[in-house]
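Input:
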Amino acid sequence: MTRLSNAFAKPHPALVCFLTAGDGDTAANLDALVAGGADVIELGMPFTDPMADGPAIQEANLRSLSKGTTTRDVLLIANEFRDRHPDVPLVLMGYANPMIVRGPEWFAAEAKGAGVDGVICVDIPPEEDPELGPALRAQGIDLIRLATPTTDAARLPAVLDGSSGFLYYVSVAGITGMQQAAVDSIEANVSRIKQSTDIPVAVGFGVRTPEQAAEIAKVSDGVVVGSALVELVGKHGEDAPAKILELTSALAEAVHSARG
Amino acid sequence: MNTQANSFRTQPDERGHFGQYGGRYVAETLMPLILDLEKAYDEAKADPAFHAQFDDLLEHYVGRPSPLYFAERLTEALGGAQIWFKRDELNHTGAHKINNCVGQILLAMRMGKTRIIAETGAGQHGVATATVCARFGLPCTIFMGATDVSRQQPNVFRMKLLGAEVVPVTSGAATLKDAMNEALRHWVAHVHDTFYIIGTAAGPHPYPELVRDFQSVIGKEARAQMLSRTGRLPDLLVAAIGGGSNAIGLFHPFLDDPEVKMLGVEAAGHGLDKEHAASLAGGVPGVLHGNKTYLLQDEDGQITEAHSISAGLDYPGIGPEHAWLKDIGRVDYTSVTDDEALEAFQLLCRTEGIIPALEPSHAIAAVAKKARELPDDAIILANLCGRGDKDIFTVADALGVEM
Ligand SMILES: Cc1ncc(COP(=O)(O)O)c(C=O)c1O
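Output:
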């Protein structure tokens, strides 16, 4: 069992929470996610050109970079998180260029050393897997791929091939922070995906409230919340941890009790 | 070995790679669209009716073939090789960009798409896109960095006259790179009805290939015109490079002519040791906007801002085929500063009565250096890929002239 598979083996759906590394007091904000009941942490690696992100996460990327956050800093944040929370799964999420610029082997080894369990890379589809996948797999790091409403039955096997940890189902064709898709379309897509794979399926993009999260938790293995948390960092700065704790607790309660 | 294996004209491979460059580095949401586009383009390529429609529009709407012109007074002024220009600045809308837009909108309509988006820097590609959208009655949204919107007002107004919606992009430095990010974001959210007309030979496969193919009309015409006028091929081709579409359009049909040398000219901005836009000279390979290529970036892979006086060259990347041609040594690449381009701009105005755009002014500056090094009977052919009407305000400003 890995930390990630443990998180999805709990008797309830998992709450997956995203924050951008280097934005605000990241360590304190991450601790608030854990204290609030997050089951999996996604740590965003800031990038100058976050092409799949809406305004909230774009701004978080810029706030972080303008403070001078480097890849070393991101790995250090991960490493310190691992020391404080030995059992909470940690996933790095970001774009290809910062991950491959020193070679994928360098990145995979450093991520492993920092206690990272999985990596989500937005702009490396299965077609370009050799760029990153083999290096991660060689280190035993899960490559978590995205499936979307445009991933049809013909493509799904390619997406699943080489995926591990969990599959991230992006509920809307769009960028982060957009409106959530209708729950019945999510349910249909998740059950279609689950017919083809045993790995857990978590659903994200557009989930903001405990009510929405509960609805999705009923039909999936996990719920991902990002922009709503990132906005709290932007809005509350130093006071963000308390606000993050509050929202995460409400989300966790909703997700964990969704199936009664 | 057969000749095919020795050809420089068989790239990309079936995965869209030019050597190690190119590829399809896009979010999963876009991947099925890119695959659809590839299929549609393969079918169009094999369809004589598609070619007939493309050729007809280029002839009667764009005004092709563009002339091949011997620049006698410039040649005299420089004192060296003969200088010839491929006059793509005479095209409808004033630049080579329209060649590509005609091809892509025909493709969009074949695919049943009902609306068009595009990014633009200087506004030339935006104007060309808005033009073909008006011609075919498709709604069109152009993403343009807010900085560029304010420094390219005439083109913004042109696009609006043509019926396009112009969306100013305020993220990042609010220039071309950010406009492209925003166009990609918009596309992800409008996948079913929208076609993205990319303006240069970059982006995810099959864009670098199809933009090159549409722009290759430049080189095909020039090759035939040169043979019929002089009975031989040129010694040196020169073209400016933003993303590389006019350059690859000129170069590609000549790549297998070993006697023809080629020179791509990047923008050195304030100088290669300062702010510039020369991704081959000052960048390293990386991934951005769907392709792997040379990029201006720091050691962490963060993309750095480009600078050029020419908004059309102000981009931190370059099309992947150029990255490959540089590595294998088939094409040479050099760079020219803002000041050198301004000087070349004025030189062409005065010697030939042609006001060039600032982009080809970079090529002309490189031509001026090369002409002096070559014998009188050598032939240099440069791509005059745009006219300078759009740039007179920028030039006046740089020369300290009040208008
Ligand atoms: C006249 C002209 N030339 C060149 C360029 C640079 O693009 P490319 O390198 O794709 O030809 C532009 C871009 O706007 C342009 O307007």
